[in-house]
Structures are given as structure tokens and as C-alpha cells.
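Input:
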Amino acid sequence: MTTTDWEIVIGLEVHTQLATRSKIFSGASTAFGAEPNTQACAIDLAMPGTLPVLNEEALRMAVMFGIAVNAEIGKTSAFDRKNYFYPDLPKGYQTTQLERPIVGAGYVDIQRADGSSKRIRIHHAHLEEDAGKSLHEDFHGMSGIDLNRAGTPLIEIVSEPDMRSADEAVAFARKLHGIVTALGICDGDMSQGSMRFDVNISIRRPGAGFGTRTETKNLNSFRFMERAIALEVERQINVLEEGGSIVQETRLYDGDKDTARSMRSKEQANDYRYFPCPDLLPVEIDDAYIEALRADLPELPDVRRQRFVQQYQLSTYDADVLGCDTGLATFFETTTLQCGNAKLVANWVMGELSAKLNSTGLDIRESRVTPQGLSTLITRIADQSISNNMAKQVFEAMWNGEGDCDAIIAARGFQQMSDSDAIATLVEQVIADNAQQIANYIKADASKRPKMLGYFVGQVMKLSRGQANPQQVNDMVLSKLNALL
Amino acid sequence: MTIERTDIEKLAELARIDITEQNISATARSISEILALVDQLQAARTENIEPMAHPLDATQRLRADCVTENDRREDFLALAPCSESGLYLVPRVID
Amino acid sequence: MHNLTLAELSLGLDNRDFSSVELTQFFLERIATLDQRYNSFITVTPELALQQAQAADRRRTAGAVPAMCGVPIVHKDIFCTRGVRTSCGSKMLDNFIPPYDATVVANFAAAGAVVLGKSNMDEFAMGSSNETSYYGPVKNPWDTGCVPGGSSGGSAAAVAARLTPAATATDTGGSIRQPAALCGITGLKPTYGRVSRWGMIAFASSLDQAGPMARTAQDAALLLNVMASFDPKDSTSVERDVPDYTAGINSDLTGLTVGLPREYFDAGLNPGTERALRDAVAELQKLGVTVKDISLPHSALSVPAYYVIAPAEASANLSRFDGVRYGYRCADPEDLRDMYMRSRAEGFGDEVKRRILVGAYCLSAGYYDAYYKKAQQVRRLIKQDFVAAFADVDVIIGPTCPNPAFAFGAKGDNPVAMYLEDIYTIATNLAGLPGMSIPCGLVDNKPVGLQIIGNYFDEARMLNIAHRLQQVTDWHTHTAPGLN
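Output:
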């Protein structure tokens, strides 16, 4: 039996930090990167006698998400306490929503590589508070607790087990990322934990019932998600094919080592004793509230990618990639607005720029080449001031902060030689220096000549140190040689 | 409802309260007495009665999304049994 | 001076009969001399009190001041006081000095009241006898061999012993009314949501409510004027104007209907207590009220429902006491689990641990529906009983507790016998209704209380009835033996 005999079943739970200024139940700041515990107020620290009050913006953002994924909105939602002890959970319970979540059943459509689309159902999404962080650096054999993140608002988005491959899971995750960033309810910065994915994975024989699933927790990049799924699927297949059985467990994926292991410690005594939080009352919203938000909803990825096809004549593939990612979409549109030439902009954003972002781990908003910079570069390519090859070097220099586009072109002497007289002089010289090759060319069969032409063009380009416009050189060499026939 | 030793051990673990060997049976006895009192509830007819979590039929008020709290880390850390470099210290956390 | 009421002290300050500093010194000395008998304080704050008294005197010189300005009070040690240790009667918080004030504390500070100290209480307000305090039991001024009731036993005893003219307290299942009854003073638990819970250490969040303790209904009204407020920091605080509770306190009672629930005059009620109650009701009839027999059919289920709901909420509320950020941590924990298990085992007393375990049990997988959900349903039935009753009557009157104060150790180690002491008070917490206790007689030379249960936010009417009754009876003026 082989891998192809197994069907993979995947469901996601996505923790999405909401981009509020203050926390879900307190007036402490949610800004990332502050000194430890400087943004943990009495409520976040669960000081005795402190009480929660719900942030209206967190509620509004959750409802916007619900509208965007075609979900039923809970007109009456309520908060529950989920009880467990952990040092990063100050109250000893997490305030979350179990029975009556703010967002009910909904769905999103994903685009697959073959161009088809698939509907992934969302079971529900609920509001809850994030926990703090345990720092495992050694403080005399102890761990340090930073509670700045405690109380940051989250929506936890829970999908149905509708995905059948790592690709589908990643496409779903990317679509959710595109939606929450388009809505402006999450900064989407996964390196800072703004979106974290728990992946439920099981495998089964096609047509059989669901297998036992495992949960791999806290994946914070699409690449890790893809790898973690591949590893876990492989592990489950091995276990089952060797006659073993899958144990329901929580697993932890280590991106640096590309390995995963079982998290035994969190498994014991898993009885959360949920009950309605008596400190918070039922949250009531009415149709007017929902409809006002619906009317003001920003453009969503699905609408945007269709618009990109129509407005910029992008291919469906390019429009999917750019339209789904709010950061890329904004960068693309800002750049295109300045220089026109949407197709070239799309190529650069999806090619050189994306590669750079991937290799440096930066978010598009942290890109060291701005839309203004890229638009100048593309203008120089389009007006043939520089070759594509030069443009790549200029881009690299711009990324490294060596100055703006034109300054780099000037400093490197990258001005493309488009002056016909100068190119003509070089062509003459190549013809003069290569008498034997010219003779061969003239004698050769006409069908062989185009191949031989390349040699002369190459010689001219070499003489110009790569700066001559290749098309111009080609045209000129051809006409000179034709004249000799 | 009779509470067994294993129930007490499970509850002690859930509530993170160490119960010494010599106290287990006394604890089981007193909790059994309380649960016997509580079991009188089973006599009540509660079909179609909506559970009541709050005494008043009020709904949640919302706060504006404003940062109102200043950094008072030093005040709070002064209360901590063990802290260093702005962090609360606990015996090592193992995931 | 110690026999003057709040209202009289306020007038005395206005008339410059004495200054707030003199008044404060007087009570501080009285506490220093007498409280060793009663153990009603956990912390006395002389320096702070005198500073506040000086400020109050200056403020009074500068112009018109609120009635409470310069008047000494005591806060139950469940209210967080900035810079003053707040223990909640527990070893767990023996070293806890809050960097913030409870809203109740802030309200009294704004009114210029002087805080003499923090009163003793059952640990985390769990108890009806004050025997669960880490700081030792409070003794009943009427009989120091008897309990003062609980959990606000320190506040009640301090008022009864005239160590303070008034005190704050909290009531989750009777913790204001029962000690008020047992110590012969006046105590009021307002409607749930009337007084902010911010900074008040939670026992059972959906039941806890703070209220005043004093000697007279009029003083209770003055205190409630300060305590009651809408607080945006408490989601369960009710956004509703606070009336002047003293305004209608003298109103005529003619035409009012009082309901006597037959379930409250059952076989468990001490005959002496019942006689005292019937006498008080007769006085009310002379004042023009009509008396009506009513039924609260689910009364017997209030104690069972309470002992699911309160422990369940408490089990979660007390999880924050984990030895990480404040409070007690055991010595030399072996590992994380050991730190939790021993810090909580050593930091909490037996009753608190018992209730946490019961709460965890009722919420645990497989038991939630049978216990927690069932109790929540019964809670609604109990509320519906009251709603139906208030369609016919203006207030409900009954006993506060079955018996006068009992001796220390009388309930032995039987938690259920202790729980049944709150049989008449618990239902109002479940329903969120206001209730108050006023002294209505002596049984075996110990005071017994009459309970008035009002409709939602009808505290003014309850105070009016209590005040008029106190105009024609003198039980509230009786003083524990050996105090004058």
C-alpha cells in the first residue's frame, strides 16, 4: 500500500489577534514588543477584585469577520470560563465563548492550483483572550513569565474538517489571512504571532469514517504548516501501515529542526469545567448594528482578485496570488498607480520582491523597496534605460539601501546603451575582428544563419560590457550581415 | 452521591490543591455530606426552565477601545513572590 | 461618643462639638483597649485614620461637606485598600498590599470618611461563624463564647461593640444579614448590581454584593448613599440613578402590604425568634401596614442550589491564587506542579478548599448538567417565586436566621449544619433581591434579627419600614452587656 491509498482529513483552528488598541477586557495597550510586563495592568494580572469589561472594538471586528465569511452572527453571545492552570494564564481560567459564540457557521472558497475552487466550511468563530508567554531562558533553573500579551483579543476560527491536502489547508489559511487583513481586523504578522494555526489531522481509507486525529499546535507560518502536515501525515501512515493505531494527542512542531513531538504534559486531566462567566453579561447586538457593518465592509479578497483580472488584465493565477494577500495587493496597486504596466509590476511583486521577503522573513509592509522605488525601476525597464538583468542588480542595491533607483543606475554606470551610432561602431568592430566567422556565415545555409547570428550579438554585448540594448544590437547585426550577403 | 478516594485525587489535581494521605477520607466524607444536601435539587421539576446565570436580565456594556492603563510594572512586581528582569519567575515550565 | 449614631456624629461635627481628629482618636483608643476581647480587626490603621481625619477637619473648615465627612468607618478586609494590607481573612493574602482601591473604598474616601481599619472575616467570605478566618475567630460582643455570625463577623462585632459607628460588609448568602442579626445591629444587602464589585475580592461573582452595617436604618441609608454608584469598571453594575435613601425614610407606612412567607415560619425556626418577629409585625400593623400570608414554594431548594452555584463560581474565582504574581507561595517548590499544589494547600484553609473541590466537582465532565445546570434552573424557579410574590406585596418579612448566636464549635466539623444557618437569607442572593436585617428582640439574652426582603432596587422602601419600626421599638438601641 502506498500514500495514495490514504485520504488526508484536515481541520484548522486559527487564533487571530485583533488589531485593537487596548485589550479585550482591560485598558492596557496591545502594542507588540514592549518591555516585559509593562503592558499588563491589574486586570490582565488577575489582581484580586478586578473585573472585565468588553472592548467594543473587539466585538465589532469579530462581527465584521462573521459577515465576511458569510456566517450567522450571534445576536446574543456569551462568555464562558475555561478552567486550567498555567503560569501564563493569570486568572486560572481563559475567558472564551463555548455555548454561544459571536460568529456561527459560515464558509470561504479557496482556489486550488488547477484553477478550480472549493468551499471550506467554518464551524464557528469565537472571541477570547490571549495568554501571556513563558520564557524558557534559564533564570536559575526557573522560567520567566511575561504577561504583556495576556488579554489581547483573539478570534478563534474553527473550520470543519473539509480540507484534503496540505495545499488546501494552506490555501484556506492564506484566504483567512487575506480576509482578516483586508478587513483591517488583524495585522496578519505571523512572525509576531498575530495568526497562529492549530492543525487537526487524520487519515482514512477513502469512503471510510474519520480516523483518530491529532492536533499540531501553534504553527506560525504557511511553510511550517505545510511541513507539519506532511510530517504528521507521513507519521500516521507509517503507524497505521505497521499495524499500529493513532493516539489522540497534541503535538508540537519545531520549525528549526523540522520535527514534531507529542506534548504529553498538557494532556493530563483535560477537564476544562466550562461555565458561564458571571462577571460578563450576555452580549446583545441587533440587525441595525450588523447591517451598518455590512454596508461599510472593505473590499474582500474574492472581489479584489476578480477586479484585478478586469482592471489590470492580470492572469487568473496572478490575480489569485496578489488579490488574496492584502499586503501584496496594496503594494501592487500602489506601484501600478504610479508607473502603469500592471503586468510588469505583478511579475516583480510576485517574483523578485516576494523572494526577498521570503528569504529575509520580512512582512510586505516592512519591505526595504517601496512602491515608489519599484515603480521607478519598472519605468526604467519599460523605457529601456536598463536591461532586465541590470534591473535585478539595481533592485538588489535598492534593497540593500544603496540609494534610490536612478542614483544606483548612475553610480554603477548601468545606463543602457541605446545610442545607435555607438552601437553601430561596436558592430563594425565585431565584423572587422571576425572575418573568418563572417565568411562562414555568408556561406552557410539560410536555415542555419539565425543560430550563427547569436555569436555576433554576443560579441557586441561583450564589447559593450552588457550595456547595449540587446534588441537594438540584434536588429543592427542582422541588417549589417544581410547587407553583406 | 458517595465520593471515593479516586474522586478526591482527581479533584485535587483539577483544583491544584494537595490533599495529604491522612486527609483524604475526611475530605471525602465532608464532600459527600455536601453533595447529599445538593442532591435535593434532583427533586425539582425543571423541564423547560432556562438556566439562570445572572440575577438581573441585563446585557453587557461595552468600553471604548482606549488605552487607559499606565505602566505600573514596578508596583505589581513588588507583590510577586519571585521576580527578575521584569519577569515573574516560576519553576521551569515544560511544554 | 460611642453611643452616638452616624447621623448624630455628623451633626456633632457640623456643630463643632468635636473634631474628626478627636472622634478618630476616641475610636482608635477604644479599639486598642477593647478589641482584644473581640478580635474584630485584622488591621488597624491609626496613622492613615488620623491623616484622613485631619484632611476632613480642614475640608469642613473650608465649607459645606458631605454627611460622611470626618466620620469613622471600618472596611471589611475583602475590599482592596491601596497601600493597606488586604487579606480577605486568608493566609494566602497575608502579605498582599493592593496598589489600588475598591470602588466602595474610593467612594467613602471621596465623601471624606475616616478609615479606622480592616475588619476580620471568614476566609474569602466563606463561613457563617467567622471561625474560618486565618486571623482567628471574632467573638460576639453579646456573649464572647458565641460566634458573631459570618462572613462579615468582624464588621458586625465592631459595630455592636461600639468600636466604630459603621462598617462596610459583603453578602453572598447572608454574610451581612446573618452577623447583623447575631450581633444585634442593622445590615443591608442591596440589589445585585447596586454597589460596585470592583476591588472587592470575589467569592461568587453572581451573588456577591456589598452593603452597609450600622446601628440604625437611618445610618444604613446614609452609608448606602455613599456606597451605591454606577461603576463602568464593573460590567454587572447597574446604570441607574442613586436616590437619596434618607429622603423618604420617615414616610407613612399606611397602605403598604407585607408578605409573610409560610416557608420561613417553619419547624426549624426558634420559637423565641418567632415570638419576637410576630411582635414586630404587630407593631408594623399598628403603623398601618397590611399583613398577608404568602408562599415561596421553592425556598427549601435555595440552600442546595446555592451550594452548587457559589462553590462553582468560587472554584474559578480562586484559581488566580496560584503563588505566581502575588500572595503566598510555598517554600522551595520542587517543580511547577508542586508550587501550585502546595501553595494552594498551605495558603487556603479547610472550608475554602472544601468549597473549591465541591465547585470543581459540580462543573466537571459528566456532572455539569446534573449539578450546575440544574442549580441554575432552580435558581430561576426561586426568582420566579419572588416575582410572583411581589405582584401582591410591597415587601416580604421573615426571620434573618433560625436561631440566635451559637457557641464556638457548636456546628462541629459538619459543614452542612453550618450551611443551614443561612436558610432564610440565601434565596435573596440567588434572586439578586435586596434584603436587610434589623434587631427585633432578645432570645436567651442574645439578639435576633428581622429580615426585610424588598423588590429590585426598592432599598428606600425597606429603609423606610425599618426606620419607622425603629421609631416605635428600641431593640436597635440595646447594647451588649459590659459595654457601658
